[in-house]
Design goal:
By secondary structure, this protein is mainly alpha-helical. Helix content is 75%, strand content 1%. The protein has 18 helices and 2 strands. Strands 1-2 form a two-stranded parallel ribbon. The two termini are 31 Å apart.
Length: 477
C-alpha cells in the first residue's frame, strides 16, 4: 500500500477485539518512521510555543511596543485554545493527516510573518496566526498515536517517546531562541520554526498513513456547534486576560464572561439534537472522563505555576540571577521525559493504571513541597533536586491524562477527547496564572509566588484523592 493512499480507518466498536487492536502500519521500519514523523510535529509544536519567550523583550524594544507586550502571548494562547477542540473533532470525522499537514503550513507562514514584522500589531497578528496552526497541531498530533497503536498497552511505550521529544524541544526552545538572537538577530530566531516545519511536513507526508474513518454517508460539518464551541472556549479565556492582565478592563471582561456562559448554555442542548455534533457530549458522559478533565485543569495550573513563577521565586526569594534561575529550572523540563519513560515501562504491567496517576501527583506534590522550602540559604543542589522531582512527577501525569481519555472515549471520538484534555489543561494554566497575578499585584511577589506553590500542593493532594476514582479497565496481558 502506498504511504499516501487511503487506508482503512480504525475499526468500529462492533469489530472484533483482535481487529480493533491491529496497527494500520506494518513492519518495524514503517512504524518507526511514522512515529518519528509525529515526534517531529510535536517538537515543532513545542518550539513554536516556547522559542519566542527569550527573544520577545528585545523584539518589543526594537518595535517600540512594550505596551502591547502581553498581547503577543495572549493572541497565541487564545487562538490556539479555540481551535483545539474544533480540529480534534474534524480529525475524528475526516482523518488527521490532512489537518496536520495544513497546520504545519500555517505555523510556518505565521513564523515567517513574525520574522518580517515591522510593528508590534503586525507581530501580534502573526503570532495569532501561529496560534491557530499550533492549536491545530496539538489537536491532531497528540491523537495520532491512537491511530497508529489502537492497543493502549502498546501505545504507551511510543507515547513516552513522543512526550520526551515534546519536553526536550520545550526546554531547547528558549535556549535556541536566545542563542540565535544573540548570534544573528531576533528575526533569524523566527526562521527556526519554518526550518523544522519543512522536516516535519516531509516526514508526515511520506510516512504517516492516510487513515480515513468509515461513515455510512459523508459527514456534515456542524458549523453552528463549531461557532458555539469557539465562543464557549475563547470568551472565558479572553475574560481572564482582559480582567487580570496589566491594564485590566473589568467591564469588558465581564461582558466576555457572560457571552461565554451564554454559549455554553446554548451549546449543551443544541449538541444533543445534532446527528454528528462538533462536540459530542458523550465524551463527558462517564464519571471517569469528567474527573480526568477536572484533574487536567488542576495539573495545568500546577505545571504553569512551576514553569512561569519558578524563575520569579528563584530570583526574588533565593536571590539568584536570571541566568542561574534558568539553569536551576532546567531539571523541571529535563525530567519530564524521564518520568514518561518510567511510566511507559510500568503502564503495561498495571491492572489498575490509575495508580500511576496517583504516584505522579504525589511526586509532583513532594517536589512542590521542596520548592516551597526554598529560601536565601538554600543550596543550588537542593533547588535542582526539587524541580527535577516535580518534572519526574509531571512525566507520569501528563501522558496518562491523554491516554486515559483515549481509552475511555469511543474509538470515533478519540481526537476530540484528546483535544478536550489539552483544552482544559490550557484553561487551568490561564486560571492559575491569573489568580497568582492578582495576589502578586495586591500583596508582593514573594507572597504571590508562595501562594501559587500552596495552590499547587492543594491541587496535587486533590488529584491524589480523585485519581483512584477514575476506574480503568485491566490492560495487563
Amino acid at each position: 500500500m502506498s504511504d499516501n493512499a487511503p487506508a482503512s480507518s480504525p475499526p468500529s466498536p462492533s469489530s472484533s477485539s483482535s481487529a480493533a487492536s491491529a496497527s494500520p502500519v506494518r513492519g518495524t521500519r514503517q512504524t518507526l518512521l511514522a512515529v518519528f514523523g509525529v515526534c517531529a510535529v510535536v517538537m515543532l509544536v513545542a518550539l513554536d510555543s516556547t522559542i519566542v519567550g527569550t527573544i520577545l523583550p528585545q523584539v518589543a524594544r526594537e518595535l517600540d511596543g512594550m505596551a502591547l507586550y502581553a498581547w503577543v502571548g495572549t493572541g497565541y494562547l487564545l487562538s490556539s485554545a479555540i481551535v483545539i477542540p474544533i480540529f480534534g473533532r474534524l480529525g475524528d470525522l475526516f482523518g488527521r493527516k490532512p489537518f496536520i499537514l495544513a497546520s504545519i503550513v500555517v505555523v510556518a507562514v505565521g513564523s515567517l510573518m513574525c520574522a518580517l514584522s515591522q510593528t508590534m500589531p503586525h507581530l501580534i497578528v502573526a503570532r495569532t496566526l501561529q496560534g491557530l496552526g499550533g492549536g491545530m497541531l496539538v489537536a491532531t498530533a497528540f491523537a495520532a498515536p491512537a491511530d497508529l497503536f489502537p492497543d493502549a498497552a502498546r501505545r504507551i511505550r511510543w507515547q513516552a517517546l513522543v512526550s520526551t521529544c515534546y519536553a526536550v524541544a520545550s526546554g531547547l526552545g528558549p535556549l535556541l531562541g536566545g542563542a540565535v538572537t544573540q548570534a544573528i538577530g531576533w528575526r533569524a530566531a523566527f526562521l527556526v520554526v519554518p526550518a523544522v516545519a519543512v522536516v516535519s511536513f516531509v516526514m508526515l507526508f511520506r510516512y504517516f498513513p492516510r487513515l480515513v474513518p468509515r461513515h455510512e454517508r459523508r459527514p456534515r460539518i456542524d458549523w453552528l456547534g463549531g461557532v458555539l464551541l469557539v465562543v464557549a472556549v475563547g470568551a472565558p479565556m479572553a475574560a481572564l486576560e482582559l480582567g487580570f492582565a496589566v491594564g485590566a478592563k473589568p467591564l469588558l471582561a465581564a461582558l466576555f464572561a457572560l457571552v461565554g456562559a451564554a454559549a455554553i448554555a446554548a451549546l449543551w442542548p443544541y449538541e444533543k439534537r445534532v446527528e454528528l455534533p462538533m462536540f459530542p457530549l458523550r465524551v463527558l458522559a462517564s464519571r471517569e472522563s469528567r474527573l480526568l478533565n477536572v484533574v487536567s485543569v488542576m495539573i495545568g495550573a500546577v505545571m504553569f505555576n512551576l514553569m512561569y513563577y519558578g524563575p520569579l521565586l528563584l530570583q526574588t526569594v533565593v536571590g539568584m540571577t536570571p541566568a542561574q534561575a534558568g539553569l536551576v529550572l532546567a531539571p523541571l523540563v529535563a525530567c519530564i521525559p524521564l518520568g514518561s519513560v518510567i511510566n511507559g515501562r510500568l503502564f503495561p504491567r498495571q491492572s489498575q493504571p490509575q495508580r500511576l496517576l496517583v504516584l505522579g501527583a504525589a511526586i509532583v506534590g513532594a517536589g512542590c513541597l521542596g520548592v516551597m522550602g526554598l529560601d536565601s540559604g538554600s543550596s543550588t543542589g537542593f533547588a535542582f533536586a526539587v524541580f527535577g522531582l516535580s518534572g519526574v512527577g509531571l512525566g507520569f501525569v501528563l501522558p496518562n491524562l491523554t491516554l486515559f481519555m483515549q481509552i475511555i472515549a469511543d474509538r470515533r471520538d478519540v481526537g476530540v477527547a484528546s483535544a478536550l484534555v489539552q483544552t482544559t489543561r490550557t484553561l487551568g494554566s490561564a486560571v492559575g496564572t491569573a489568580v497568582i497575578g492578582i495576589i502578586i499585584t495586591r500583596t508582593s511577589v514573594p507572597a504571590g509566588v508562595h501562594s501559587g506553590i500552596v495552590m499547587s500542593l492543594l491541587f496535587c493532594a486533590v488529584t491524589v484523592v480523585l485519581a483512584p476514582q477514575i476506574k480503568m479497565k485491566n490492560l495487563r496481558r
